[in-house]
Amino acid sequence: MAVEEHPSVIQTLRGMSRPVWLLLIGTLINRLGSFLQVYLVLYLTDRGFSTASTGFALGAFGVGTVVGVIIGGSVSDRLGYRHTIVGSMLVAGVLTVVLPHLTNIAAVVGVVGAVGLTSQAYRPAASALLIDLTPPERHIMVFAAYRLAYNVGTVAGPLLGALLITYSYEAMFYCNAIALVAFGLLAFSLPKHSEVAHASPSGDSEEVADARESPETAGRPASYLAVLTDTRFIVFNIAMILGGMVYIQSISTLALQVTAAGHAPGFYAALLSINAFVITCLELPITRFVQRMTDRATVALGNILVGAGMMLYLAGPSAAVLVVATLVWTAGEMVGTPTITAYPGRIAPPRLRGRYIALSEFATQVGYAAGPALGVALWAVWPAGVWWLCGALTVLAVFGSSVSMPGAADRNRQPLDS
């Protein structure tokens, strides 16, 4: 039976294989139970640990999540996607159960960092499996569905955590562990690395995709050094750092903008709620049309809309302006992010797919880490300058993604020689 070139939402959902559904359901369960970071500070202060110690633990978790993605990319390429997901989830579950029984702050910091690492190591493997298990013409729609599962769980998880801590913090940790282990057990049903029919973005076999590697990439052992020889992909990731720095102002400097305009903190929460609600309801339907565009055009348009939304905050302090600006950058997030998420796996040589995905996620996290620090520092001396800076960074991000991504309608791309 022929596959629709631009499938609808219903066609995409009906056409997803059982392993893809398992990945989406597992991700939803995992995110529903992932509220440790949200309530870690409250838990540790309730246990009597100092504010400084709590900060070290929270920092350890953050560092662990970044390192975990990098390690997960390498492990998934070496051991296989299923083994990586199963191992990371089960180990994270065990460590989460241990955490509430620790009394020494050094042990707490170490275990919290290890939980951050192991709980995020699955992500490159999950994205790589989605690429391998999905026809190329459905990649963008499937990644939009993956984002839906991830975002719904991320939004609902803290609410569930709030209910659990009214009973006890231990209950929160145990439920978090159950969610991690549940995903790990579901992952046992996923195909092994060797059972997946690898496909290049053009639908070719793994052998043909390997033949399209650049001489420098193909001639190196599978490692991150091999990924770094793909010059265009490195430029793409630099663009993602810049785009991430712009987007992250929505959960950092925007709060200062809202309160400086005379609005209550609750209004800022309302803006973020509007963003979450619109994405949950509209991202999949919008992706139905966005998938007709080239990857390059989609990412460029998404970045432009995000940057334009941020710059609209210069238009005035009224509630209406703030809502419209938020809707504009929300539209950019819906347009660009599914493609940005799928793109690294789509263009990666199969033997390096996990590492390509991990490096791209790392680049985004670098942008998310640098953006708030730069934005808040600039706000302190020139509030309007933050939004002008967003405009300048957007121009650079659009330029970087446009020169590094293909424009052909069939979305094919070979890694370039350095």
UniProtKB/TrEMBL annotation:
Q: Name one GO molecular function term.
A: transmembrane transporter activity
Q: Which UniProt keywords apply?
A: Cell membrane, Membrane, Transmembrane, Transmembrane helix, Transport
Identify the taxonomic lineage of the organism of origin: Bacteria, Bacillati, Actinomycetota, Actinomycetes, Pseudonocardiales
Keyword Iron on entry: no
Which protein are we looking at? Predicted arabinose efflux permease, MFS family
List residues traversing the bilayer. 20-42, 54-72, 143-165, 171-190, 233-255, 267-286, 298-315, 386-409
InterPro entries in the record, alphabetically? MFS, MFS_dom, MFS_trans_sf, MFS_Transporters
Q: What is its main location?
A: membrane
What are the Major facilitator superfamily (MFS) profile domain coordinates in residue numbering? 19-409
| Membrane topology, as annotated | Multi-pass membrane protein
User: Where in the cell does this protein reside?
Assistant: Cell membrane
For this record, the Gene Ontology CC terms, alphabetical, are:
plasma membrane
Which SUPFAM superfamilies does the record cross-reference, listed alphabetically?
MFS general substrate transporter
